[in-house]
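Notes from the 1:1 (GR / supervisor)

We went over the backlog. Supervisor wanted to see one worked example end to end before approving the batch request, so GR pasted a single chain during the call. The sequence is below; no edits were made to it. Supervisor asked that the structure be written out right there so they could see what the output format looks like.
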Amino acid sequence: MSEEIHIIQVANVGPQMPNYYRAPLMLPLRWQDEQSGVLPTAVLAFLDHGIKQRSTPPTEEQLKLICGYLKYYIDAPCWQQGDTEELDKLRKKAKTLKTGQDINDFIWDCMEIGIDPL
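Structure output shown during the call:
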């Protein structure tokens, strides 16, 4: 049985982000599955710098890419089953992400409601 992909327009996440989610649950694609290697490189730079504190920090372009991915991820329709008030707050917050600290805080906020974007 082949996996059906429904196209859902995703606004304001940049040209690097997919504009669809996986059916039937409308799940977001994972950053590890991105084929060009640009998003995985950005996420790994972010994680490596944050954990080891030895590597160079992610570039501004990499941070923008991660912010776009996090917005795409939290906007996935599959999360509608949870706490919609908290979800709405996270979706609004995702639109304002800019710095590594913003990203870190956002990830922890997602984890508090059981969503692990990275």
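Supervisor's comment: The longest strand covers residues 5-7.
Batch request approved.
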